[in-house]
Design goal:
Layout (H helix, E strand, L loop, with lengths): L24 H11 L12 H8 L4 H26 L4 H12 L13 H16 L3 H11 L10 H17 L3 H33 L15 H10 L12 H22 L9 H19 L6 H5 L3 H11 L8 H19 L6
Protein name: GPI mannosyltransferase 2
EC number: 2.4.1.-
Pfam family, one: Mannosyl_trans2
């Protein structure tokens, strides 16, 4: 009804309906799908969405339909995974799945962003791990890195049980079993390293062989980190400035809720147990929480957490108080981000 003040969306689509699904990062995805990585800054965005675009001949409607299918399957996977980790707590698992349907980051799960596809791959990989298909699980996790770089954190999920097992065997002086455990873990590490290597190599191939840029000289030539710092001011505590008060307000809510739940989990006050299984699945979220709080753009915290299943366990644990009443703080947070987030996103107001 109201004309956009930012007309950049109209450069990639004339559709009045679909243009509302394209904001911020979506514009980069559309540009990359059409013209590949012709600009250096575009290497901040993963190759997964490009492959999806090529698979569907850059059809926005096909990609968005696939997104909805992924969301539906992810809901079922969240229920099944939650049942496994909560010792078959049906009420908790059902609530976790329901909260995913009404995720505070719903706008990103219904527009041209990678959150849906990334969350789907991560949940599939976790489910495969539960079914003891470890190597296949690791391959899926490794593929997720090309949708969102924090997929690499799941090497902790895959590797932590092997590390604990090796330490226990080492204490018992069972050295042959230690070697055997290490040999089992090496292929998993290689799967992740190959995927990370591909992510590092592609921008290196495009920009470091003829035109030696500053980041090319690093021991690990990490274009993504360089782009984040130099183009978008992503660095230690860079979000916490007086001129970014709204960003801080918008982001600190997710950080406080996730942080409070992590504290409760560490003190063994949550539905998910603080055992080897529980620790392995929470570790990637802990790393993401630290990076989001201290380095990344704080206003994106809810968006970042929304792809992690512990975020929905957090909301499910906190949704009801001990007296059985709904926690108004959590309910307000979910409603505020579903409604307010949609308004901000569609009007080019930054929390993307």
């Amino acid at each position: 009804m109201i004309e956009d003040y930012d007309k950049s969306t109209e450069l990639v689509t004339d559709s009045h309906f679909f243009k509302h699904a394209i904001r911020w990062d979506s514009l980069f995805y559309m540009e990359i799908m059409e013209n590949d990585y012709r600009y250096f800054k575009n290497h901040a965005f993963g190759y997964g969405i490009v492959l999806l675009g090529k698979l569907f001949s850059n059809s926005l409607i096909c990609i968005l339909i696939l997104q909805k299918i992924c969301n539906a399957i992810s809901t079922e996977l969240i229920y099944k995974i939650s049942m496994h980790y909560s010792n078959n707590n049906h009420k908790f698992s059902q609530l976790s799945a329901l909260l995913f349907i009404f995720t505070p980051a719903s706008v990103f799960f219904n527009s041209l962003y990678t959150e849906s596809f990334f969350a789907f791959l991560v949940l599939v990989a976790i489910y495969l791990q539960i079914k003891q298909k470890t190597y296949l699980s690791s391959i899926i996790f490794a593929l997720s890195i090309h949708l969102r770089s924090n997929g690499m954190f799941f090497i902790l999920y895959s590797g932590y049980p092997y590390l604990v097992k090796a330490i226990i065997l080492l204490k018992d002086k069972k050295f042959k079993q230690v070697v055997s455990t290490a040999l089992e873990a090496i292929p998993i590490a290689l799967i992740y390293l190959v995927s990370i290597g591909v992510m590092l190599y592609l921008p290196y191939k495009n920009y470091c062989q003829q035109n030696e840029m500053e980041w090319c000289k690093s021991i690990i030539p990490y274009a993504y980190g360089y782009i984040q710092k130099n183009f978008w001011d992503v660095s230690f505590l860079s979000s916490y400035k007086l001129r970014k008060l709204f960003f801080i307000y918008w982001g600190i809510q997710g950080i406080l809720i996730q942080g409070f739940w992590l504290y409760k989990w560490m003190t063994k006050s949550c539905t998910i147990k603080n055992n080897i299984q529980g620790i392995s699945i929470i570790l990637p979220t802990i790393i993401l929480f630290i990076i989001t709080t201290f380095i990344a753009h704080v206003n994106c915290s809810t968006r970042f957490f929304s792809t992690q299943i512990p975020f929905y366990w957090c909301l499910a644990d906190l949704f009801y108080k001990k007296d059985g009443k709904i926690n108004k703080w959590v309910l307000f947070y979910i409603l505020e981000f579903n409604l307010g987030g949609l308004i901000l996103f569609t009007n080019y107001l930054l929390w993307a």
